[in-house]
């Protein structure tokens, strides 16, 4: 039977990764994976996915923003409870961190399955740029900040940035790298407003403040892939971006350790903030062919099966959700990450904060970056008040 | 005999604007009635009410003895000809003529027969395959009439059918319509604001003003014995000359003190005492020079302006302070500044009460 | 500056000579300041309008390295249609690497019925509003026009729910209905104004002839409304073809229009964009509405003159 | 008699049914729905409880919303003025009995055929400081050349304007041209006899005569401005920072990706209110004034 | 004396269409010239050439002795009044009148003086603050004339200034224009296709056809001694009755063999031999009943149609196969089917060569 799967993995590398899932699914079950990709991630695809579910034309499975959004769909009874489907797999035993599954649980049911772990927490550095100014490549964020004046003097962009969403992950990275695990837990899990007003968070805000001074809209490039090129060419010295940047660097012929360096958690912390892409399985309308329901269940199991996990994550460049997979083939950066993964994951914002709050944080960060008249104090205060109002 | 069209107590409002109020009109079988009045007086509105194109506010309409007040236009037994011809531009003449019949689902050979007959009456056989855009104004008008003709109805309604045409064509088609009426003998109701059309075509003219019929009579009566000042002024070109003044016994004294004896005038209402009145005399009833002999009233005047009109000449002058016009033969030599003697017989004029504006 | 003074000089000479010798047509110098200003303005404006089209075309004919290092003015060094071919046949969205082609046919499937139905309904509306007024018809029209100002987003959510309740969500019917609804205000306005400019007497004549509502509409009114039809047709074809939001939300997966594919290709969130393919895809998507305008632009201008002016 | 009122004009009423349903269900019904839920705390689904004016209080305390409104007003005013002015100038130029009239007309009109998405993409490409016009000209030797409006918070609205005008002025030109051609030839002759210069005739005599066209153009441009969304998304996505945000985008973000329908609908209701405030006087002039004119 | 306007060898083509060809026209100071002709004959074109609104193809135009062929309209010393009034709709009457003067940079008090004078002449002082939309047709017309008046020019050009007005207003304004001419004594060139306007207003009429002036003469001559068949047929309403036949010596024999003696006719060209000819007689020159006594030609006919027009009556009948119209007094009682004797004097008619169509 046909099973429609929607997702927003539309770039070449991502599509290749998805096709691994599809292949496994089709080989093992004999069903057909009907692929509906929608570009535009959260803003473009999410409304369409949600409106289709609400509109009574649900797909068989879909990628979706994890978090409290989905909760409402679950509440409305629009999502399939997977508890029985994966009952015999003992999923708690192999998931890297149980926190990954937390957002999927609701009143005792299980409604989604994270299929990979992504982390934003990477500082990427250009070897060529530092060769130009005759300095060693920094080992952590602080050294990196210290090198900015020299870079600027040499006409090199200290921090390359693409317009639009790539900025949105940076404040979170600074928070976990500079603020440390406790701060992240206090804010993202406990919603502790006082932590925001505390000294640790102030350091984060100051880091963001210093960062905005070396970023100017004029030097921004259209896409983060272009930043990768800047790093390889040495026209920009560093960039904070998620692990998927690696794929682009590799495609452009960069070799880790030689052409670029990667510093997980800014070289400061020992845990990564992790988030995953999750799949949901909407409840199909009454009278749907039982074979389709079966295919849905099969797909759920396959997505988290070791075979599919290995194939998918190798191509995608992300980390698998299972601890029991041998990733010897992974490159040095990935190896570093796998090492840190053993320490567990820090929860990222979308686990416990509503997307409304996240949207507001993002609005605030965007505004702060751009508008120098907002002081660090203002920033902290507004941040606190948004957090306060999160329900 | 039963009347062909009878309108009883008709009222029509557009929202709060009352256009027609309690209007009654009886039209005999085969009569040619002209509705005449200035623009905006409600002529077209009345015609549209008869045709059923407007929903009336009150009253009843009978056509051929049937109460048609609530019937659709097509069921009223009427045909209508419009000012702008209103030919269907994308259809040939033949299709224009036959459209209504085909809509009614008439048999094909019957349709053909009727179209052929109408085309023959109107002499438009050679035009049947043309589109309206390729016809001259007069031809279009004929096709428009043909469209009413084929419907084989008792009552024809015309809404200013000639007013878009030039003067020459207008006078030719006027005669044609008259011939058509002689031949068909249907009832015809004809709206116009052109008094020449009204006078030449009508069996009876209904002169309207502000939705009210002022006078309903044959053209000769309308012209020579208008019932009030309004009708007197509206009919006749150049306009009737009006003297304001006082009427006492058998003399009329103008404001300037000029005395005009009116013994010869046949009063509708016997005159009593002295009343403010208006004496009207038509330009062609004023005579000049030798002809003034024997006229009850004569006076010497100076010519102000002369308008030669080919067949006759119009002259403008003053009696007292009052500007007047008179018409004389084009052979008479007069020019601005000439001093002449003119005169008229009040018997051929009209006298109105200044107060009620009605004929005395 | 010197231009104008010589002109003035010339006309002075002409003026003195003119006293006796002026004869025939007024002499017209080939270059007058007026003409120079008019044409230079026109050329400058034309450059503004044409530049993006030029950029689109040339970029789509270049290779990626050439784009990254060259300049956007330059003509392609080695023009080739690879990007076009890729955009049409093999650009990927997720796993589907069929390019724009299937989207093209979906767009055709959506555009044709939506255009026909929306125009038909709007034409009937305009006709009823002018010739068959009934109590309240003007109020409906006023609300309709007012509605054209409301952002679509306001309606999206409830419309999804309505469509769900009607059981047509995710079908062609749904997207056709949505296009009809949102095309209604402006099209109804157009048709209403146009029908208002036709002589009322034609309508009356047809009623006396016994024709009813539909008969008059089809046999009398429609054949006379060609100019305004062309305008409506152009507006709807381009509008519906360019639509993204309704297509993606209401049409259902099987019917995703070309713009969705374009969006997928261009906005693939991650990785280095292939600008040449993007531009080729953009040009390809715009080709249909562009063709419509280039072919029928003259009619459009005429139709607008016939309908819209008496606003 | 009642039957007569009901069935009078029946086919017309039936034919107008789609319009009546649309008006009642979509334009009235959905609007009421929108207003109602803007007073609830609905998140992803319209299920929230009534919370009074909470959403509005938050709305007006949000700097992104306030910036959006300011932007829309600034952009709207400029766009309206420039579209009308440029449209009129173009129409006047075309009206000068020029050669290749239809070619020029087509050149000016074709952008209208393209979607805002395409418009935004192309102009983003052209105006991008690191790839487009600026870099190109710098590479060619004008090292001081600067054209970074799209990346400059103070100029970004003008960047939007450039793209917006590119898209919309052609249509305005067509409308104006229709208006110009509709002006009685004898007016022109009278003005020439009076010795009134051409430009003066256009400005003082012809322009005021084109009221109908101006109203139509105003309605069309105005409704486009209020709805402004696609162009911003494609060209700047609200950036840099939030300097080119617009209300429609705010509404859309909160309704669909922000998962706060209540907030989104509150924004939508405010937009609606603005439209009402602008439209009511116009509607009064247009429809209410008719009684006086005849 | 120097001519006010003189047109020499004027030609005008629109592309390959020749509208005016080698046209000459001399107009004296203070003269009132009417250009009369059917639609499309080139009247407006000629007027526009004089005004400088059209670029001529060849020839010269002199106004007040100056060669204005290449001058701008505003520099030619002309004022123009248009059919559609062409008032600037959004300006008050006062601004309409003064706009041109202000643009020309005239001093404010001078502008006011001129406007006041024009307003006084035309009696539109109370209207100065109104907008054209709030004026009646006649008032608008007057403002349009005022706009020419303030320019203080020697030559006034009118392009069918009355054709948009209704009949009554038209005849009133006609007189006003005539009064204005008497008062101002400028040269006036007046285009119309209405022959009554032409006959009443003109000092001289130029009858045009296809861009060629057929006859240029005073109204009396035009009406009574038309130079060719075209002019004879064009002027006069109802139209001149035309008999086709043969002229030999002093008798005219119609196609139906009816013999009409024409000894009394004053030939322009002495008749020789027998030629195909057309005899024209105006309807008002045909007399009825007793008056026929002494007429060179009389005949008994049957009345076909009668058109009462108020002041007179038109009757339609046939002489031989030829339909003819004659006019009689409205007092005369005739009706369809009556048999009457009619007659006329060929001396008052016109005879044309059938071949050249010129007057014999
Ligand atoms: N649809 C309407 N709504 C409101 N008033 C109207 C309407 N139609 C006509 N009227 C008014 O009704 C009055 C009569 O109009 P009608 O058309 O009958 O005049 P008319 O005598 O035919 O004039 P004309 O000679 O100009 O055709 C006018 O004052 C007009 O303004
Ligand atoms: N701009 C033009 N281009 C081509 N032919 C024209 C143009 N203007 C007028 N004509 C032609 O020139 C001829 C004379 O036109 P003109 O307007 O002078 O006629 P007219 O005598 O004023 O008629 P009317 O009484 O209808 O105003 C007509 O045959 C007309 O078709
Ligand atoms: Mg009427
Ligand atoms: Mg003319």
Automatic annotation (TrEMBL), chains B, E:
- InterPro entries linked to this entry: AAA+_ATPase, ABC_transporter-like_ATP-bd, ABC_transporter-like_CS, ABC_transpr_MalK-like, ABC_transpr_MalK/UgpC-like, Mo/tungstate-bd_C_term_dom, NA-bd_OB-fold, OB_MalK-like
Provide GO CC annotations from the record: ATP-binding cassette (ABC) transporter complex, substrate-binding subunit-containing
Keyword Transport recorded: yes
Q: Identify its membrane topology class.
A: Peripheral membrane protein
* Name of the protein in question: ABC transporter ATP-binding protein
This protein's UniProt keywords: ATP-binding, Nucleotide-binding, Sugar transport, Transport
Segments traversing the membrane: none
Does this entry carry the keyword Transport?
A: yes
CDD domains, sorted: ABC_MalK_N (cd03301)
> Any idea where the ABC transporter domain is?
5-235
One Pfam family from the record: ABC_tran
What SUPFAM superfamilies does the database record attribute to this sequence?
MOP-like, P-loop containing nucleoside triphosphate hydrolases
The entry lists its GO molecular-function terms as: ABC-type transporter activity; ATP binding; ATP hydrolysis activity
What are the subcellular locations of this protein? Cell inner membrane
Q: Name one GO biological process term.
A: carbohydrate transport
TrEMBL record, chain C:
User: Where is each ABC transmembrane type-1 domain found?
Assistant: 104-296
- Taxonomically, the superkingdom here is Bacteria
What keywords were assigned to this record? Membrane, Transmembrane, Transmembrane helix, Transport
- GO BP: transmembrane transport
Which spans of this chain does the record mark as coiled coil? none
Ranges that cross the membrane: 36-57, 110-130, 139-160, 166-191, 212-235, 277-295
Q: Where in the cell is it found?
A: Cell membrane
Bilayer topology reads: Multi-pass membrane protein
Q: Could you name the Gene Ontology cellular component terms for this entry? A: plasma membrane
Question: What does the sequence similarity comment in the record state about its family?
Answer: Belongs to the binding-protein-dependent transport system permease family.
Instruction: Identify this protein by name.
Output: Glucose/mannose transport system permease protein
- Name its species: Devosia psychrophila
TrEMBL record, chain D:
Indicate yes or no for the key word Transmembrane: yes
Which SUPFAM superfamilies does the entry link to?
MetI-like (SSF161098)
Question: Which terms are listed as keywords in the entry?
Answer: Cell membrane, Membrane, Transmembrane, Transmembrane helix, Transport
InterPro entries, per the entry: ABC_transporter_permease, MetI-like, MetI-like_sf
Record localization? Cell membrane
Transmembrane portions of the chain: 12-36, 72-94, 106-126, 155-180, 201-226, 265-285
Indicate the segments forming the ABC transmembrane type-1 domain, all copies: 69-284
Q: Which Gene3D superfamilies match?
A: MetI-like (1.10.3720.10)
The membrane topology of this protein is: Multi-pass membrane protein
Q: Does the keyword Membrane apply?
A: yes
Q: Which domain of life is it from?
A: Bacteria
Task: Please report which protein family the annotation says this sequence is part of.
Answer: Belongs to the binding-protein-dependent transport system permease family.
Identify the PANTHER family for this entry: ABC TRANSPORTER PERMEASE PROTEIN
The name under which this protein is listed is Sugar ABC transporter permease
Its lineage reads: Bacteria, Pseudomonadati, Pseudomonadota, Alphaproteobacteria, Hyphomicrobiales
């Amino acid at each position: 039977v046909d099973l429609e799967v929607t997702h927003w993995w539309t770039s070449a590398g991502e599509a290749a990764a998805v096709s691994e899932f599809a292949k496994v699914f089709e080989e093992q079950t004999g069903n057909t994976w009907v692929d509906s990709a929608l570009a535009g991630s959260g803003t473009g695809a999410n409304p369409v996915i949600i409106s289709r579910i609400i509109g009574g034309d649900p797909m068989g499975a879909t990628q979706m923003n994890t978090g409290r959004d989905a909760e409402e769909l679950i509440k409305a009874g629009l999502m399939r409870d997977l508890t029985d489907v994966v009952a015999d797999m003992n999923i708690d035993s192999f998931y890297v961190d149980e926190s990954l599954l937390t957002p999927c649980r609701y009143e005792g049911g299980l409604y989604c399955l994270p299929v990979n772990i992504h982390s934003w927490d990477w500082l990427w550095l250009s070897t060529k740029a530092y060769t130009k100014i005759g300095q060693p490549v920094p080992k952590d964020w602080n050294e990196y900040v210290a090198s900015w004046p020299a870079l600027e003097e040499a006409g090199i962009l200290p921090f390359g940035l693409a317009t639009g969403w790539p900025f949105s992950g940076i404040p979170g990275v600074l928070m976990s790298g500079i603020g440390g695990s406790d701060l992240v837990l206090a804010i993202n899990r406990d919603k502790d407003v006082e932590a925001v007003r505390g000294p640790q968070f102030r350091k984060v805000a100051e880091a963001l403040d210093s960062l905005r001074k070396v970023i100017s809209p004029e030097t921004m490039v259209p896409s983060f892939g272009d930043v990768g090129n800047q790093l390889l060419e040495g026209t920009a010295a560093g960039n904070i971006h998620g692990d998927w940047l690696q794929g682009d660097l590799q495609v452009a012929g960069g070799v880790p350790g030689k052409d670029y360096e990667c510093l997980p958690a800014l070289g400061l912390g020992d845990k990564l903030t992790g988030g995953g892409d999750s799949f949901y399985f909407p409840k199909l309308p009454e009278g749907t062919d039982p074979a389709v329901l079966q295919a849905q269940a099969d797909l759920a199991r396959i997505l988290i099966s070791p075979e599919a996990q290995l194939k998918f994550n190798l191509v995608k460049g992300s980390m698998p959700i299972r601890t029991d997979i041998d990733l010897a083939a992974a490159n040095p950066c990935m190896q570093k990450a796998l090492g840190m993964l053993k320490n567990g994951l820090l929860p990222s914002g979308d686990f416990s904060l509503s997307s409304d709050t996240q949207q507001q944080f993002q609005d605030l960060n965007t505004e702060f970056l751009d508008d120098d008249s907002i002081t660090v104090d203002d920033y902290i205060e507004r941040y606190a008040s948004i957090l306060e109002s999160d329900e | 005999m039963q009347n062909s069209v009878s309108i009883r107590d008709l009222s029509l409002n557009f929202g709060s604007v009352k256009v027609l109020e309690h209007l009654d009109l009886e039209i005999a079988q085969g009569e040619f009635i002209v509705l005449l009045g200035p623009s905006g007086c409600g002529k077209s509105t009345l015609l549209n009410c008869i045709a059923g194109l407007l929903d009336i506010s009150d009253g009843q309409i009978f056509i051929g003895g049937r109460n048609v007040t609530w019937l659709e236009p097509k069921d009223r037994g009427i045909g209508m000809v419009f000012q702008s011809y209103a030919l269907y531009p994308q259809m040939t003449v033949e299709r224009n003529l036959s459209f209504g019949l085909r809509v009614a689902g008439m048999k094909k050979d019957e349709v053909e027969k009727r179209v052929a007959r109408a085309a023959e009456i109107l002499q438009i056989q050679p035009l049947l395959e043309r589109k309206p855009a390729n016809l001259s104004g007069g031809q279009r008008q004929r096709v428009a009439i043909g469209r009413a003709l084929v419907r084989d109805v008792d009552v024809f309604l015309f809404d200013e059918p000639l007013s878009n045409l030039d003067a020459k064509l207008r006078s030719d088609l006027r005669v044609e319509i008259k011939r058509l009426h002689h031949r068909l003998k249907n009832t015809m109701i004809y709206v116009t604001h052109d008094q020449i059309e009204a006078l030449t075509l009508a069996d009876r003219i209904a002169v309207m003003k502000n939705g009210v019929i002022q006078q309903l009579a044959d053209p000769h009566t309308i012209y020579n014995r208008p019932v009030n000042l309004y009708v007197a002024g509206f009919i006749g070109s150049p306009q009737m000359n009006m003297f304001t003044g006082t009427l006492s016994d058998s003399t009329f004294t103008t404001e300037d003190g000029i005395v005009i004896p009116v013994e010869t005038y046949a009063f509708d209402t016997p005159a009593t005492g002295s009343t403010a009145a208006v004496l009207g005399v038509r330009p062609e009833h004023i005579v000049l020079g030798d002809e003034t002999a024997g006229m009850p009233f004569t006076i010497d005047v100076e010519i102000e302006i002369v308008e030669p009109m080919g067949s006759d000449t119009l002259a403008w002058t003053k009696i007292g302070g009052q500007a007047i016009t008179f018409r004389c033969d084009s052979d008479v030599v007069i020019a601005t500044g000439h001093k002449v003697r003119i005169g008229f017989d009040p018997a051929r004029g009209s006298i109105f009460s200044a107060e009620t504006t009605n004929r005395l | 500056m010197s231009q104008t003074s010589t002109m003035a000089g010339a006309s002075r000479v002409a003026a003195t000579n003119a006293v006796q010798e002026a004869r025939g047509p007024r002499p017209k110098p080939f270059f007058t300041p007026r003409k120079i200003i008019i044409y230079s303005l026109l050329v400058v404006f034309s450059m503004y309008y044409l530049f993006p089209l030029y950029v689109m075309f040339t970029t789509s004919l270049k290779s990626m390295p050439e784009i990254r290092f060259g300049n956007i003015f330059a003509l392609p060094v080695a023009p080739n249609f690879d990007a076009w071919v890729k955009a049409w046949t093999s650009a990927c969205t997720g796993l589907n690497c069929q390019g724009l082609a299937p989207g093209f046919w979906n767009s055709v499937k959506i555009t044709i019925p939506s255009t026909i139905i929306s125009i038909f309904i709007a034409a009937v509306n305009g006709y009823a509003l002018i010739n068959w007024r009934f109590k309240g018809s003007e109020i409906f029209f006023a609300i309709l026009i007012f509605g054209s100002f409301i952002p679509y987003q306001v309606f999206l959510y409830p419309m999804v729910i309505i469509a769900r309740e009607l059981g047509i969500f995710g079908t062609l019917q749904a997207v056709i209905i949505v296009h009809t609804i949102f095309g209604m205000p402006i099209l109804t306005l157009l048709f209403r104004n146009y029908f208002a400019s036709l002589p009322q007497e034609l309508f009356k004549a047809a009623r006396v002839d016994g024709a009813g509502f539909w008969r008059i509409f089809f046999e009398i009114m429609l054949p006379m409304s060609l100019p305004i039809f062309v305008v409506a047709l152009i507006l709807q074809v381009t509008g519906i073809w360019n639509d993204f939001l309704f297509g993606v939300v209401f049409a259902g997966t099987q019917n995703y229009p070309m713009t969705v594919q374009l969006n997928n290709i261009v906005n693939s969130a991650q990785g280095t964009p292939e600008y040449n393919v993007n531009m080729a895809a953009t040009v390809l998507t715009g080709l249909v509405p562009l063709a419509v305008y280039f072919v029928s632009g003259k009619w459009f201008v005429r139709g607008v003159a016939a309908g819209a002016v008496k606003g | 008699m009642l039957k007569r009122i009901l069935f009078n004009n029946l086919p017309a009423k039936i034919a107008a049914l789609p319009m009546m349903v649309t008006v009642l269900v979509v334009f009235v019904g959905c609007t009421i729905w929108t207003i109602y839920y803007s007073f609830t705390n609905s998140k992803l689904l319209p299920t929230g409880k009534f919370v009074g004016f909470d959403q509005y209080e938050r709305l007006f305390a949000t700097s992104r919303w306030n910036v959006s409104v300011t932007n829309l007003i600034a952009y709207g005013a400029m766009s309206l003025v420039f579209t009308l002015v440029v449209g009129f100038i173009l129409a006047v130029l075309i009206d000068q009995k020029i050669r290749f009239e239809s070619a020029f007309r087509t050149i000016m009109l074709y952008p209208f055929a393209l979607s805002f998405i395409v418009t935004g993409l192309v102009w983003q490409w052209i105006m991008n400081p690191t790839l487009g016009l600026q870099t190109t000209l710098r590479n060619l030797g004008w090292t001081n050349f600067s054209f970074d409006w799209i990346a400059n918070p103070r100029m970004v609205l003008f960047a939007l304007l450039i793209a917006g005008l590119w898209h919309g002025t052609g249509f305005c030109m067509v409308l104006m041209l229709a208006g110009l051609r509709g002006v009685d030839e004898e007016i022109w002759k009278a003005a020439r006899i009076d010795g009134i210069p051409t430009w003066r005739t256009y400005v003082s005599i012809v322009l005021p005569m084109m009221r109908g066209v101006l109203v139509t153009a105003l309605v069309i441009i105005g409704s486009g401005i209020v709805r402004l969304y696609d162009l911003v998304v494609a060209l700047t996505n609200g950036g840099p920072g939030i300097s080119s945000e617009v209300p429609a985008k705010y509404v859309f973000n909160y309704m669909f990706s922000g998962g706060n329908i209540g907030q989104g609908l509150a924004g939508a209701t405010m937009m609606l209110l603005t439209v009402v405030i602008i439209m009511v006087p116009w509607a009064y002039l247009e429809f209410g004034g008719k009684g006086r004119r005849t």
